[in-house]
């Protein structure tokens, strides 16, 4: 269980253990500690939050101090997406192997489902193959005896069995017909714009030049970027603020996603060394 609110983690763990005494629960308070556990131990299921307060605060201080470079940094915001990636890369279930290698642990995304978490949930579902999602407001164990509906324990059991699960709060937020890859990341030329706006930068010439952009290009891209926001979120209404303002506000709302280590690694902006390594794929 990867959760930075220690009291919440201990309370939920106690409730889970009371319902299922055979469980063994290891607690990590941030993605770095989780990575160490995942590389050294074996787990059946990994339950992780998506956002961690200390990670957010540290990265926010870097932003405020002007110490974030979109063309040279190799460390960005660490989140639950990193935990999931590490679980897929390093960990294995105890005693289980297939012909192609070890069986990886099941994953449960366990998060507060507000608007600025939607892109992280989309990414976990689309790119990292997560199929079990539980909101923080759900109880640890079912309220009705014999039922698995609407509880963290139910999500854990589904993840263990590699079956899909989403409680009533998260289910409406899950991606259906559209994908991040084919909408807001449809054009690599947009990647730098998203990151500039996420940092609160719109017209700093040194940043624009480093990303291979100029004001005219940015203004030209934002119309199509706005269209893709509407497609991804199935929006039909027009916004009177104009595409630049809407795209800027959207990037600011979802700054944790656009500046996430895992997302940056997969969709790096022009000018960053990662952009030269490989083209992003939709697998």
Strand order of the largest sheet: 1-4-5-6
The helix/strand order is HHEHHEEEHEHEHHHHHH
Q: Per CATH, what is the topology of the largest domain?
A: Rossmann fold
Q: Helix proportion of residues, in percent?
A: 40-55%
**DSSP helix count?**
12
Mean pLDDT, rounded to whole units?
A: 90
Uncertain spans, ≥5 residues at pLDDT below 50?
none
Structural class category: alpha/beta
Span between termini: 27 Å
Main β-sheet description: 4 strands, parallel
Instruction: State the domain count.
Output: 2
Reported CATH architecture of the largest domain: 3-Layer(aba) Sandwich
CATH class of the largest domain: Alpha Beta
| β-sheet strand percentage | 5-15%
Short description:
This protein has about 280 residues and is α/β, with parallel strands linked by helices. The chain has helices at about 5-20, 30-40, 55-65, 80-90, 120-125, 150-160, 190-200, 205-210, 215-230, 245-255, 255-260, 260-265, and strands spanning about 45-50, 95-100, 100, 105-110, 130-135, 165. It is built from 12 helices and 6 strands.
Explained architecture:
By secondary structure, the chain is of the alpha/beta class. It folds into two domains: 6-173, Rossmann fold (3-Layer(aba) Sandwich), CATH 3.40.50; 188-276, no CATH class. Helix content is 41%, strand content 7%. The chain contains twelve helices and six strands. It has helices spanning 6-19, 31-40, 53-64, 80-89, 118-126, 152-160, 191-198, 205-210, 215-232, 243-253, 255-258, 261-266; strands at 45-48, 97-98, 101-102, 106-111, 132-135, 165-166. A four-stranded parallel beta sheet has the order 1-4-5-6, with helices on both faces. Strand 5 (132-135), helix 6 and strand 6 form a beta-alpha-beta unit. The chain is globular. The two termini are 27 Å apart.
């Amino acid at each position: 269980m990867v959760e930075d609110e220690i009291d919440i983690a201990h309370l939920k763990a106690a409730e889970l253990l009371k319902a299922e005494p055979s469980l063994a629960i290891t607690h990590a308070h941030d993605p770095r500690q989780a990575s160490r556990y995942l590389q050294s131990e074996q787990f059946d299921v990994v339950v992780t939050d998506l956002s961690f307060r200390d990670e957010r605060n540290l990265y926010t201080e870097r932003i405020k101090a002007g110490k974030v470079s979109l063309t040279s940094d190799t460390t960005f915001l660490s989140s639950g997406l990193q935990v999931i990636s590490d679980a897929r890369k390093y960990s294995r279930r105890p005693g289980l192997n297939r012909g192609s290698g070890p069986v990886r642990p099941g994953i449960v995304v366990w998060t507060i489902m507000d608007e600025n978490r939607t892109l992280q949930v989309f990414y976990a579902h689309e790119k990292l193959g997560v199929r079990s999602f539980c909101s923080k407001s759900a109880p640890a164990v079912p309220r009705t005896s014999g039922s698995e509906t609407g509880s963290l324990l139910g999500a854990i059991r589904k993840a263990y069995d590699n079956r899909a699960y989403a409680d009533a709060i998260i289910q409406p937020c899950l991606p259906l017909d559209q994908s991040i890859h084919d909408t807001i990341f449809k054009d690599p030329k947009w990647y730098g714009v998203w990151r500039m706006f996420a940092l609160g930068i719109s017209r700093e010439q040194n940043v624009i030049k480093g990303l291979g952009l100029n004001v005219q290009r940015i203004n030209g891209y934002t119309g199509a970027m706005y269209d893709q926001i509407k497609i991804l979120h199935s929006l039909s209404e027009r916004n009177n603020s104009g595409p630049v303002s809407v795209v800027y506000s959207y990037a600011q709302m979802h700054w944790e996603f656009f500046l996430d280590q895992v997302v940056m690694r997969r969709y790096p902006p022009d000018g960053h060394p990662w952009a030269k390594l490989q083209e992003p794929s939709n697998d």
